[in-house]
Amino acid sequence: MQRSYLFVPGDRPERFAKAFASAAHRVVIDLEDAVSPDAKVAARAQIADWLVRQLADDARPRLMVRVNAPGTPWHADDVAMLRELRVRQLMVPKSESADALADVAARSADDAELTALVESVAGIVHMREIAGAAAVARLAFGSFDYCVDAGVEGMDRELDAVRSAFVIESRFAGLPAPVDGVTLATDDARLIARDVAFARGFGFGGKLCIHPKQVDAVNQGFAPSADERAWAARVLARLAENPRGAFAIDGKLVDKPIIDRARRIAAEQ
């Protein structure tokens, strides 16, 4: 399971290697929000040069690029550059329709995988179709942009229904658990840990990060704890001893959903 998605500005190639040196599961080189309009063309060229000259082969599976949104002046050239360089993993901001995402997939490398960043009311309304669009591999929540679009002022319980929708639609489409939005604080370890625990409780499986300092907390917070792994091991050990009979663990009856959860925990790396 990919838990941490670390953004790095696309016009700061001197930071790319540092981002890859982190423990982030995906390094998201950003051509969208992190780059001003007058720097986007130059940033695209800098990224292309860095990918050809400096990206190590063993780092390539961790590479993701956030392109500019469909309909912007830079989008088509972003996608064309990534296709030429056979970049497989794209994050598509302002994802609002399955047709737009299918079009991105058709213009990308043949084996491309899209992370659909849903960050508007229209995106939430059409999320079921988005989750089922061609090449969409995962949903991510652009929580701050969504709140601006929807006129929502709070970032906690005010978003409960939206977070549940991400989890439901991801599960319905057979996608991995969705990726939660960013935490703006970079030095508040307690707040980051709280946000991770909150998102995990809803069923999210990862989080967008804006600083390398956030990565370890995200990786650890979304991973099964030592107690959870120990519980899963006990469940599966008892199941092996008694594969057809009922049994209890910690005073609770174990049935198929419990066994399935134990297997998921045991399978996580």
UniProtKB/TrEMBL annotation:
<feature type="binding site">
    <location>
        <position position="145"/>
    </location>
    <ligand>
        <name>Mg(2+)</name>
    </ligand>
</feature>
<feature type="binding site">
    <location>
        <position position="66"/>
    </location>
    <ligand>
        <name>substrate</name>
    </ligand>
</feature>
<feature type="binding site">
    <location>
        <position position="119"/>
    </location>
    <ligand>
        <name>Mg(2+)</name>
    </ligand>
</feature>
<dbReference type="InterPro" id="IPR011206">
    <property type="entry name" value="Citrate_lyase_beta/mcl1/mcl2"/>
</dbReference>
<dbReference type="InterPro" id="IPR015813">
    <property type="entry name" value="Pyrv/PenolPyrv_kinase-like_dom"/>
</dbReference>
<dbReference type="Pfam" id="PF03328">
    <property type="entry name" value="HpcH_HpaI"/>
</dbReference>
<dbReference type="GO" id="GO:0000287">
    <property type="term" value="F:magnesium ion binding"/>
</dbReference>
<protein>
    <submittedName>
        <fullName>HpcH/HpaI aldolase</fullName>
    </submittedName>
</protein>
<feature type="domain" description="HpcH/HpaI aldolase/citrate lyase">
    <location>
        <begin position="3"/>
        <end position="212"/>
    </location>
</feature>
<dbReference type="InterPro" id="IPR040442">
    <property type="entry name" value="Pyrv_kinase-like_dom_sf"/>
</dbReference>
<keyword id="KW-0460">Magnesium</keyword>
<dbReference type="GO" id="GO:0006107">
    <property type="term" value="P:oxaloacetate metabolic process"/>
</dbReference>
<keyword id="KW-0479">Metal-binding</keyword>
<dbReference type="GO" id="GO:0003824">
    <property type="term" value="F:catalytic activity"/>
</dbReference>
<dbReference type="InterPro" id="IPR005000">
    <property type="entry name" value="Aldolase/citrate-lyase_domain"/>
</dbReference>
<feature type="binding site">
    <location>
        <position position="119"/>
    </location>
    <ligand>
        <name>substrate</name>
    </ligand>
</feature>
